[in-house]
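Narrative summary of target 7.
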Amino acid sequence: MHLEPGTRRRRAFADFLHHQSTAGILLFACAVAALLWANGPWKEGYHHLWEHTVTLTIDELTLRGTLHHWINDGLMALFFFVVGLELKREVVGGELSRPRDALLPVAAGLGGMLVPAALYLAFNHNGPAHAGWGIPMATDIAFAVGVMSLLGDRVPVSLKVFLTTLAIADDLGAVLVIAFFYTSDLSLDNLLIGMAFLAVLWGGNRLGVRNPWFYAVFGIAGMWTAFLLSGIHATIAGVLAAFTIPAETRMDEPAFVARIKRHIAAFADLEPNGKPTLSEDQLAVIQSIETDCERAATPLQRLEKTLHPLVAFGVMPLFALANAGVELPADPFGALTSPVALGVGIGLAVGKPLGIVLVVLLLVRLGVGRLGRGVTRAHLVGMGFLAGIGFTMSLFVNELAFADAALREAAKLGILLASLVAGGIGYLLLRRLPRSTA
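Modeled conformation, tokenized:
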């Protein structure tokens, strides 16, 4: 059966939503576990666990850091690699490939980054706390989509697509913010080495290299290590490496269909084997089918599909477990009214929905864009609050923004409370709307 491009995109999007919603539930469970662990009788063990030192030595090169450091700089590079794969897929053939369709959610994402940053700076316009302006700019796509999935058909599909596209554009913005504003002192030599590895990856793409091990060796072992030593955060290496992965097929759809039909016919013409194992001729046909399937798929999408479960169900929950364990202070009210906690909390819970809704309504009024089928202003406001769930990306930027542990803990409180409030309000607003037929 031939599937139209729109049908294929909807099916792929449904699979994406399913994985993201399940990952969001696991992420929430790990965040709760971290909070309970950090405030329970075993809290000393919680903090001690992440401070264990892990050393990696290769010849004369020695990389040493705490377990917490390796999770945030190492495993999260894999997270950003998958983010890069998703971004490239969307730009090449997804929601970001059609400028007119992408304009509204991308502009909404920009508004949802600038307004929270401005509100944060209103509370923290100078001093060390000033560096945290990037914390409330991010949206946690897994959490936001997870909450939206709980609403079932009360949410039109076009609103889910809008939120996902907005969050992907938001991820790109967060990557750029990290690259340009949260980079330490640069080591020019290591940066040049990293760029040389990037050039090798790009050259491999242009020469038609499709073996994932080529990109793993030069991208992870080479570019990631060089970027880690250069002072640019190593997660940027993950995104750049992802953009070098080939996104073209070696066989177009009509040729693939024709060849598969011939393989099926050839297999059907073979004498039945009548045994649990295959005959050599049958195995040869199946291997030809596997080869053609590989040629008809893009390396980018194969890698994304392989790595996404590992990141969604391994890396992100581990990151949450290592970073969400903030000890609740003896004076919660005083902690939550500190400038950092207020800036982060108001930035996420108020600035996110405000920036998104205002930009969308302005562009719709100007005729530049239009809301999707079945999406009302009430849907838009509810979605805006769901975008205020910052969690993973906000916690990550928090680790880069502050060297002071007290500031980091205050920001974590703001992130956790604001994400809970924004997610709860968004859920309740959308829950009270009539079921969608779109």
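The longest helix spans residues 5-38.
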